[in-house]
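In the current project phase, our protein records have gained a structure token line. A sample record follows, to show the layout:
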Amino acid sequence: MKGCNHTGGIVSQLNGHNKEQIKFMSIEYRIVINHEEQYSLIPIDQPLKRGWKDTGKMGSDTECLKHIEEVWTDMAPADLERIKASLRH
């Protein structure tokens, strides 16, 4: 077919994202938590940093951030009261 561009469908599916953005969007993450009950996510191929534990949840960045938003309702450190008390003395 004259004028047919077979890559047009792929390009339109990418919605203008470049290769690095697509690579980032396809990374699988795991959700981690620290002793203060603060959450973060790291790529599943990265080792856990000291002080962080794997929660067992993993997925895309969007899926992980949605889960964190649902479970992390109090962003204050777990021992905030201890910290406040130590500052008063």
